[in-house]
Amino acid sequence: MKSFLSWTVLTVLFLAGLSATLAPGPVLGDLEGTQKTAATIGAAVLSLVAGVTLFRREPLKSFLGSPPVLWFLFLFNLAVAAIAPFAIGGAKGIGMAIGMGVVSLGAGAGLLQTRGKRRTERA
Question: Deepest of 24, 53, 61, 82, by most Cβ within 10 A of its Cβ?
Answer without folding.
Answer: 24
